[in-house]
Amino acid sequence: MTEDTPRTGTHEPGSEPCEAEDSIPTFPVVASGSADLPPHHDHCLGCGPANPHGHQLRVRRDAHGVHAHHRFDSRHVGAPTIAHGGAVATVLDDLFGFLLYTVGELAVTRHLAIDYLAPVLLDTPYTLRAHIHARDGRKLHLRATIENDHAHVVTTATALFLIVDIDHFLTTTHQPHHR
Ligand SMILES: CCCCCCCC/C=C\CCCCCCCC(=O)SCCNC(=O)CCNC(=O)[C@H](O)C(C)(C)COP(=O)(O)OP(=O)(O)OC[C@H]1O[C@@H](n2cnc3c(N)ncnc32)[C@H](O)[C@@H]1OP(=O)(O)O
Fold first, then answer.
1. Mean pLDDT over residues 117-138, rounded?
2. Thioesterase domain: from which residue to which, for each copy (predicted)?
3. Residue among 157, 159, 156 nearest 139 (CA)
């Protein structure tokens, strides 16, 4: 296993990872209440522990979906003292990606919408939560919130993830979609 190999080996017994390709993990279902979920891969911008520019998000599964505690820092500054909206979107997109451990299938973001209700401050603790609102075939409708320490929701997000097969990550010539 190289440094680039996804770390999918920290699941509970009975949910061993299954890697269809050397660097592309599948998403075995990890039980509710289990330990930290494994990062998508070591250099993932959202959660990769080996990405010095990343958020190194650590996510746990819970009864409703997944959650994480996170502080944005000076690397993520937008307006002074406030996290850049794109950085917030990155973290929420990645958090949604952890719901795949509750689905057990590969999926990618088709649509992401964010309501920035109040500034997300740097060096301030927040709790991020995400859950599956509905599943319609290969469409996963997802919802998330960011709360401050006073349980005030400062950000909400919705996303549509589309379940894909492994070929999605092996194809180098994706065609753009026009709606
Ligand atoms: C060597 C590399 C190794 C990598 C290893 C990775 C392993 C890890 C694996 C997993 C990662 C998890 C990590 C999480 C990280 C965060 C998540 C991301 O950053 S993901 C990246 C950003 N996203 C994309 O790059 C997708 C780009 N888009 C596409 O490739 C396609 O558009 C795709 C596959 C998503 C869908 O394409 P279609 O052709 O299959 O489907 P269509 O026709 O566009 O839509 C399907 C259905 O959805 C509806 N739909 C589309 N947009 C909608 C909308 N906005 N609202 C409601 N419905 C919508 C449509 O009406 C359609 O519905 P009807 O099937 O007809 O019922």
1. 98
2. 82-151
3. 159
Q: Tell me how far apart the alpha carbons of residues 76 and 54 are, in angstroms, rounded to a whole number.
A: 9
* CATH T-level topology, domain 19-170: Thiol Ester Dehydrase; Chain A (3.10.129)
- Residue boundaries of the structural domains of the chain: 19-170
Residue nearest ligand 1's atom 2 by CA: 169
Distance CA 47, CA 172 (A): 24
Quote the ligand 1 centre to 139 CA distance (angstroms). Answer: 9
Its pTM stands at 0.86
- Which is nearest to 3 in space by CA: 48, 45, 58, 42? 42
Instruction: Please answer whether residues 137 and 150 qualify as being in contact, where contact means their C-beta atoms are separated by less than 8 angstroms.
Output: no
CA atoms of 38 and 114, how far apart (whole Å): 25
Nearest-10 Cα torsion for 160, 151, 36, 64: -50
Report how far ligand 1's centroid is from the alpha carbon of 13 (Å).
31
**108 CB near ligand 1 (under 6 Å):** yes
